[in-house]
Amino acid sequence: MRWEGQELAVTDGAALPGLQRIAGLVRSVRTPEFEGITFHEVTSKSALNKVPEASHVPFRWTVNPYRGCSHACTYCLSGYAPITMADGSTIPLARVRPGDQVLGTRQQGLSRRLVRTQVLDHWRTTKPAFRVELDGGESIVASGDHRFLTPDGWKHVTAAAEDEPPRPHLTTRDRLVGLRRGVVGAAVRPDDTLTVSYVRPMGVDLPMLDLTTGTGDFIAHGVVSHNCFARNTHTYLDLDAGDDFDRQVIVKVNVAEVLQREVGRRTWAREHVAMGTNTDPYQRAEGRYRLMPGIIEALAGSGTPFSILTKGTLLRRDLPLLQRAAQHVQVGIGVSLALLDEGLHKSVEPGTPTPKARLDLIRAVRAAGLPCTVLLAPILPGLTDSEEHLSALVAAVADAGATGISHIPLHLRPGAREWYLGWLESTRPDLLPMYRRLYHRGSYSDQRYRDWLRARVEPHLRQFRLRDDDEPLVDDRRRPLHGTRWGTRLTPAPAPAPHEPAQDALF
Fold first, then answer.
1. Is 0.85 surpassed by the pTM of this model?
2. pLDDT tens for residues 361-400?
3. Exposed (0-12), middle (13-18) or buried (19+): which is 418, by Cβ within 10 Å?
4. Of the candidates 320, 243, 241, 249, which has an alpha carbon nearest to the alpha carbon of residue 286?
5. Cβ proximity of 77 and 129 under 8 Å
6. Which is deepest, 45, 146, 183, 482, by most CB within 10 Å?
7. What is the pLDDT of residues 331-370, one digit of tens each?
8. Are strands 306-310 and 331-336 parallel, antiparallel or unpaired?
9. Residue (of 298, 191, 236) closest to 66 by Cα position
C-alpha cells in the first residue's frame, strides 16, 4: 500500500470539518484500498480511559487506539432556522455562538424532556437544500443529511444515495417530535401539526450551519434536531451497529508510547484493562498502523491484565505476542459471532469478517493455547433466535474450541436503532410490529423476551459444558463479571441504563 502519497489537507472535503482545531492533528489520509474512509492521525496526550462509574460496567479502564463516526450529519440547517435558547427565546442559527446556552433534550423515564445545554461548536458549509413542510405550516430548509426526531427514532431528511447503505428518512407518514413550551423540564412529543406534508429539493446549494451541544441535540423550528456530530469535543462514538468500518477514523498514532508511560507510573494499580468495548482495536486500519503490538507489550510489561473483544481476524497476527504476554499476566480473548448465514451476514454486517473466518479465528486462538470466549451478540429477534439457528451456532462455536459462550440480545441504542429499523423495513417489514413490541420501552428488549431467549440458549450451552450449571441466571444488565477468571472466561459487561452512553458499541 502506498500510504505516504495519499496525504490530504485537513480542509479537504473528505476530512472531518473542524479537524484543524484538534490539538495534535498530524495529517488526514485517504487510500484507494480504503475507499470512502479518511484517516485522521493524531498524537494523544493520554491512552488509558477511565470508564464513568455511571456506566456500571465491570471494569474501570479501557484503551481505544481508534475512534471514528459513521452517523455524522454534514451541516444541516439554514442560518435562518430559529433556535430555542435556554431562556425560551429564539434566535437565528447564524447568530448562535459556542458558549451560548440552548435547550436540548434528555430521556427521563418514559419521557423526553427539555434541559439546558451548552453550545460546544458551530459549523458552516454549503449543501444542496431541501424544504420540509409540516401540516401546521412550519417550513424548514435543511440538507438531506440532517436528522429530526420522530416517534420511531432519528430520521434523515432524505434517503441515502443509491451506492450507500439504506438509512431511515422522512416520509409523509412521519410526525416530528417538538415542544409546546420552551421551558426546562417540559416534555417533547409528536403532534399532528408536526406531520410531514412533503420533502422537496429546492434545486440550489445554500449555506448550511449546525451546532454541537452537550446533549447531542437542540431545538430548531420547534422540533428536536440532531447535532452535527461532535468532532473535536466528542468523548465517545455514536457508531452504526451494521457498519464497523467508519468513514472518518481518528488514529492515535502515539498511543503505545503514551500508554507505556502511564502504566509505568508508581500510582498505576495494574487494574484490568478491557479493549474492544467501544471500537474494535483490530479493525482493518490496524493492518497498516500496527498499534496493538505496542499496546500489548506495554500492558504485559507493566504487569497489567487485559482482555480483547474483536470481530477482526487480524488478531491472528498478534497471537505469538499474546502467548508471551499470557506468561506474565492474565489475558482474555473474546470473539463476537452471532450468525452463520452468509447472506444475512452480508446484509447486517457488511465489511466484517465472515462467520467462517471468525470460527477459524477461534480455532487459531485455542491452538495458541489461549482461552477464547465467544459472545453470541447480537442475537436478532425473528432472524437468528430460532431453535435451529441457535443449536447450529452453539455447536459450531463449541466445535471451534471456545472455552466459554455468552449471549446478548440485540440492543437498539440511538444511532443503531435508526439504522437497523430502516434496514428491517427494507428487508423484513413483516417483523416491524414485533420489534415495536419488544423495544417499546427503549434500547433494550422486553424482559419477557430476554427470559425466553435465555431459556432457549441455556440447554445448548450446558450440552457442550460451556457454562457452569450453578451460575445464577440473572438479568443481562446485572450479570456479575468473574473478575478472577479473565484468563478462563469472559462474561459480558452489563448493558448501561438507557440514558447512558454505550460502552460496548461493537454491538
1. no
2. 999 999 999 999 999 988 999 999 999 999 999 999 999 9
3. buried
4. 249
5. no
6. 146
7. 999 999 989 988 887 777 766 788 999 999 999 999 999 9
8. parallel
9. 236
